[in-house]
Specification:
about 10% strand, about 160 residues, 3-stranded antiparallel sheet, 5 helices
Length: about 160
């Protein structure tokens, strides 16, 4: 394993593999200048070596344009709306509404949602969050059921 120099979290890695370490750094510390540079460097290497194994033609595309596109692609994934109501802290989150510390591991939002829905459902914004969260969960379940149905159809 390795200890993150930014947050001191222990990151599992086996036999000197850096995959989990890179994943942790890019997910948690992309705002750090040296991590941002490392991310861009790794993504540039992937861009230059296309899926076919041949170099991609990057001529005529400025370095800054490539870097901005790489960072945009990384930031496109929207953070959970729960983080409007809580700040991430080591091993959890701190509720912005009541300052309670909520345990959470590896950025999981389950306990933070639970806290908000149990303690702050009287707040209109939290009610809206619950509605959105419920719809999202229903869509995930529906998608899983639809995929299972397709799988059994293929097997029959």
């Amino acid at each position: 394993g390795a200890k993150c120099k930014f947050c001191s979290q222990l990151v599992k890695s086996s036999l000197g593999s850096s995959t989990n370490v890179f994943g942790h750094l890019f997910a948690k510390h992309l705002d750090e200048p040296e991590v941002k540079l490392l991310y861009i460097e790794k993504r540039r290497a992937n861009l230059k070596l296309g899926k076919s194994g041949q170099d991609m033609d990057l001529d005529g595309i400025g370095d800054e344009d490539i870097d901005q596109q790489i960072l945009y692609q990384r930031s496109k994934k929207d953070p959970s709306p729960v983080w409007k109501f809580a700040d991430r802290i080591l091993n959890g989150a701190k509720c912005k509404l009541c300052s309670k510390l909520v345990k959470s591991s590896h950025g999981s939002t389950t306990n933070v949602f639970g806290h908000l829905f149990a303690k702050h459902l009287d707040q209109p914004e939290v009610k809206l969050l619950k509605i959105e969260h419920t719809k999202r969960r229903e869509n995930v379940i529906l998608k899983k059921l639809t995929n299972k149905k397709k799988d059994t159809t293929v097997l029959s």
